[in-house]
Write a structure and sequence with these properties.
Layout lengths: L11 E3 L4 E3 L1 H18 L8 E6 L3 H12 L3 E8 L3 H18 L3 E5 H5 L3 H8 L3 H20 L3 E3 L4 H14 L2 H6 L3 E2 L8 E3 L7 H10 L16 H15 L3 H20 L5 E2 L6 E2 L5 H16 L4 H5 L2 H5 L6 E3 L1
Parallel strand pairs: 3-4, 3-6, 4-5, 6-8
Antiparallel strand pairs: 1-2, 5-11, 7-8, 9-10
Length: 329
């Protein structure tokens, strides 16, 4: 294979683009794709500070790397979920990445905000681990962004992630989820920050290649709680389709954005109010995070696994502890 740009030896073939690239030209292509997605979808301006949600994996660290190289004011946010050695390793990758590049990194421990680490939440409340994890991530990224003055949060969700999510929503005809699935979720009211996904056109294989060629040290292991997740089944099905018809995933998702999402978006009429406990936007009187934190507090107190001060604390006070929040460098 020859690189389509320089005609030198290619290291990566991208069948859906009917192209192959050498290392240098692929890295340039990848960065252009990301910058073009940001520009076309008006995700954020050059002068806007961006909070990048990083997990220690290839996608989020690759995104942070691209934004820094392209001159964006990008700060990382790592949420320590307390998932045994997995969280220790992923946090170490994020801290090393920030230190090597002289970038700022906020670290927030979910246990300090929720009252328990993610693995303990299921034991205390019987809520599914992934459900509690997703809720905590959405709530805390929004709250930290507001507190630190960031108008936008960027996540490393790639094309494979978005196509798999879309497939799951279509199979269940979840109209609420279909209305919300977009590369850009605007801040529709005070208390919400804009959420964007600059990698929504980029495949997981491409982000992995970028991270490898850039020498980014990322955690390869998947979260131990993700085993058996339905989303992995959807990804496998889409990969088989992509192998047979290159570009199928991109066509599936981009066509949805162009032709179907506007109709679902018009159907979505959700009235938000301020949570009576923490003030964050919610559809109920008390937001889901505060309700879950209260359940954790009560169950922990009953079992004697929380310190007396934490057991007696109000959920809003519990979330304000922030003992693990800090900045690097």
């Amino acid at each position: 294979m020859k690189c389509v740009k320089c005609r030198g030896p290619a290291v990566l073939e991208l069948r859906r683009h009917n192209a192959a690239f050498c290392a240098e030209d692929f890295l340039a292509f990848f960065r252009r794709q990301t910058v073009e997605a940001i520009r076309k979808w008006k995700m954020f301006a050059r002068e806007e500070p961006v909070l990048v949600a990083v997990s220690g994996g290839k996608d989020s660290l690759a995104l942070w790397d691209v934004l820094l190289l392209e001159g964006y004011d990008a700060t990382g946010l790592y949420l320590d979920l307390g998932i045994y050695d997995y969280s220790k390793a992923s946090r170490a990758r994020c801290e090393a990445f920030a230190a090597e590049r002289g970038a700022k990194l906020h670290v927030v421990a979910v246990a300090d905000e929720m009252g328990a680490a993610i693995p303990e939440v299921k034991e205390l409340t019987r809520r599914p681990t992934c459900s509690a994890c997703g809720l905590s991530k959405r709530y805390l990224t929004n709250r930290v962004a507001l507190a630190q003055g960031f108008p936008v949060v960027a996540t490393g969700h790639n094309l494979d992630d978005e196509a798999a999510t879309l497939l799951g929503s279509v199979l269940q005809w979840s109209t609420e989820a279909l209305a919300r699935q977009s590369p850009v979720l605007p801040a529709t009211r005070p208390g919400l920050v804009r959420r964007v996904k600059p990698f929504f056109r980029t495949s997981e294989r491409e982000t992995a290649a970028y991270a490898f060629l850039r020498g980014i040290d990322y955690i390869v292991e998947e979260c131990p709680f993700s085993r058996g997740a339905t989303s992995l089944v959807y990804k496998e099905a889409l990969n088989r389709l992509e192998e047979h018809s290159p570009g199928a995933k991109a066509a599936f998702f981009t066509t949805f954005l162009q032709r179907a999402r506007p109709a679902f978006e018009r159907l979505e009429q959700v009235e938000l109010r301020d949570c009576a406990r923490c003030g964050q936007p919610t559809t109920a009187e008390v937001c889901a995070f505060c309700r879950l934190a209260e359940r954790v507090k009560q169950a922990g107190a009953e079992r004697g696994v929380l310190a007396p001060a934490a057991a007696e604390a109000d959920p809003a006070e519990l979330r304000g502890l922030g003992a693990a929040e800090r900045q690097l460098p």
